[in-house]
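Narrative progress, year one. The postdoctoral researcher (J.K.) led the effort to move from monomer predictions toward full complexes, under supervision of the PI. The following entry was the first complex the group processed end to end, covering 262 residues in total.
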Amino acid sequence: MAQPTLKIEDLHVSIEGKEIVKGFSLEIKGGEIHAVMGPNGTGKSTLASALMGHPKYEITGGKVTFDGQDLLEMEVDERARAGLFLAMQYPSEISGVTNADFLRTAINARRGEGNEIPVMQFIKKLDEKMKLLDIDEEFANRYLNEGFSGGEKKRNEILQLMMLEPKIAILDEIDSGLDIDALKIVAKGVNAMRSPEFGCLIITHYQRLLNYIKPDKVHVMMQGRIVKSGGPELAERLEAEGYDGLKKELGIEDDEVVEQEA
Ligand SMILES: Nc1ncnc2c1ncn2[C@@H]1O[C@H](COP(=O)(O)OP(=O)(O)OP(=O)(O)O)[C@@H](O)[C@H]1O
Ligand SMILES: [Mg+2]
């Protein structure tokens, strides 16, 4: 099997006419874990939603390929079926659809008609992954995310990840709202996915998560694009200094100042 690759080149994304992502480039391959850090409002979630094909986000420039195919030409469901996965910063609640039903439908959509997962195999897999993530059995039959606590939603996103086994996953603030034990469990889930067939982009504010999931590369996103890339030591530096030191070093001015000058 070819190594999965998501290649983002000079991507520009606008929302309601305002440019948010301004020339973002990054290549993620199977076997790699990348972390993106950056101040609030810098466009991290916008990037993730645009890659999944959210209709509100308008792509105004650049190119994205997924395993050599033009991702931006693919329908939303096609992207998921091809093996792209997004764990959202704010997972939505779906009333009337149980967690187990949702997962089985999503898995079967990926496998295609005539190749559905046998029910017993599905149950066994679900049981195994729920145990690994320390999720109580009752969650299989609860409506998707309805009434789930913040941390339970995040853990459930990792359950989806492990059940769907995508080629490339984007995890948007999967660590927000997690207690220390849950953080370790979520990290265990992501680490269990590590293989040459799986690549991952982790969006996070805190270096803490990266103690448990060792990224190969750390990127800093500011004002809609990557302004610096490095190894895990870059996350440590940000944790210690915040973003001001880096802004000074790179000669980046605050957004407001730039807009006033324009
Ligand atoms: N649907 C929308 N309508 C209007 N503005 C939006 C919408 N989505 C995002 N924005 C704006 O785009 C900018 C970037 O938002 P985004 O959610 O991508 O930031 P972020 O980097 O994920 O921030 P955070 O770290 O707080 O999650 C913000 O100024 C936000 O208000
Ligand atoms: Mg965000």
